Amino acid sequence: MKDSYIPQHLDAPERYLVFTADELMAVVGPLLVCILVSNFAVGLVVAAACLWSLRKFKQGSSLSRIKWAAYWLLPADVFRLKATPPSHLRELAG
After folding, report:
1. Which of 5, 10, 43, 58 is placed for a possible disulfide with 34 were both Cys, Cβ 3.0 to 4.6 Å?
2. Does the model's pTM come out above 0.90?
């Protein structure tokens, strides 16, 4: 009976074709925009560049690394977190 799927790794991310969910958004988003604005070939090049840069930035880790970089590099108004101090405050007490 081969009607059930047993995953090899329990923490493996869900995949769509060969992409994870964040990689799929990094490919489909620029591809759709470039198809609507210019042409398909430019869209493929931009989507490939986005996919390469996302995979290079993640390098074995998950989206937590991207969230970390966004917290420290983007302005404090982007996240508006109540429990954490703004990222531009480097020294909290002292």
Report:
1. 43
2. no
DSSP 65-93: HHHHHHHHHS-TTTT--SSS--TT-----
Q: What is the largest CA-CA distance in the chain?
A: 66
- Same domain for 77 and 40? no
- pLDDT digit string (tens) for the chain, length 94 residues: 567 777 677 777 778 888 888 889 889 998 898 888 888 888 889 999 989 988 888 886 767 777 777 777 877 777 776 676 666 766 766 5
Looking at the fold, whether 52 and 88 belong to one and the same domain comes out as no
DSSP 19: E
Query: 47 is written with which tokens?
Result: 């989507």
Task: Report how far apart the first and last C-alpha atoms of the chain are (Å, whole number).
Answer: 66
10 in a structural domain: no
